[in-house]
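User: Need the bound-state model for adenosine monophosphate:
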Amino acid sequence: MNLATWVERHGRDLRHRPALATGDRVHATWEGFAARTAGVAAGLRGEHGLVPGDRVAIVMKNRPEYLEAMYGAWHAGLVAVPVNARLHRDEIAYILDHSGTRLVVTDAEHADDVEALLDTVESLQAVVLAPGEQWDRLAGASPMRLLDRRPDDAAWLFYTSGTTGRPKGATLTHRNLLMASLSYFADIDAVSADDSVLLAAPLSHGAGLYGLPHVARGAVSVFPKSAALDGPELLTLTNRWPGMSFFAAPIMVKRLAADPALAGADLSRLKTIIYGGAPMYLEDLEAALEAFGPRLAQIYGQGETPMTITALSKADHAPRDDPRRRDRLQSVGLPRTDVEVRVVDPYDRELPVGEVGEVVVRGDVVMAGYWGQPEATEETLRGGWLHTGDVGSFDDDGYLTLRDRSKDLIISGGMNIYPREVEEALLTHPQVDAVAVVGRPDAEWGEAVVAFVVAAEGVQPSVDALDRTCTERIARFKRPKEYYFVEALPTNNYGKVVKRELRERVRSQTAHR
Ligand code: AMP
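Assistant: Bound-state model below.
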């Protein structure tokens, strides 16, 4: 099934209901969205001469035209390459070149950067500006019939966030994205045409993926007006568009939870905040539950298995008196309905409950492979299982707890230390606002634990106090040998801490000890 079928269908069954909105204003009804999608498709094929399977990249901030471009490309049988618009021009160039993109849809904010690439990226033949006259002409083209797509046809090249080296393009098929959408209904929430989805995080990543089940069910896609959603805007939008859900990285959830405008506010029209993509620390999660109530659902996923490995449901967040509550909240939940999840040893043998190993996943949601990288594909999908590179263990009840990325594991004096545990411990100190723990090469220990600490405003915890906080909670050998006090942690465009950068930094700085 072609995913653009949803839009075409709602163009008839939900005709006059809102499909796309900017702030409190309706941008398009379903009828309008469907017509523009079919027009964009016709324009891409006719005016620009693209043929099914060609790649169309989207480099723009979140705005309604983003979805017109994406569903328009699908309608025409083309492959969408949503590129994070906050990337550096050279990074964008790499993705366009690697994916063999022929046409880019971009907005005025990014047009200069993208147009300059017409000279350097060989495959690139056209850049189309949206919104504006050029886009309206394309969208106004006489609509073309929806092109049939087979389940295995590529739909979305999802470039990984590349916290280690060059990003890879996970090839997501129509079937992969359909499965991801259906399992949203199975594991997270039912969705109806009376609901809405707020697209606050980059559409090239989690927000775009969670937008799909909402389009499938005819909910309205809402684009915030500001670049950084805050409490007052969230309140205005949930009042205007009830039944609202949105995807947010942990860092964004933490920021919103601390927004004074939300304290005591009526959030009854807010349905679900789906968080994930990076670890959510217990302290921050407790604060978020305090602020938002039982409206949080956690997902654990990867671009390679579009945001679908495990989920910790809203119900799992709720019980206050369950003795396992702490463990539950630190876990990433249960395997999703549409996948098998195992924890394996380095020889791919399944490990028993409680043992820590690599998380592997199998199912119809797992990518077809990495675009143009057969060796990396073979390595990652060996034996028919997606090797996530994440390390974790199952508990007796079947909940998965992640320890860390395998490459972030610290081995000190022959002992395995998972930075996440040390980070969780340090975050319990009231004067610590954020923390990241990495390993530094050490002649005596192999690696030494070092912590980058962002202190709460106006205070500076002492190294002794931090040490005590650790030793009260975790084994002595796990406590940091060095602390670096920093203003902020380096994050990439998806709000993930770039530990590679921290590891490089520890080689050249002096620490507090
Ligand atoms: P990406 O493909 O860029 O979304 O990165 C996926 C990676 O983010 C996963 O392999 C995990 O390491 C991490 N991740 C995703 N969701 C979670 C989560 N809920 N908790 C901890 N880490 C996560």
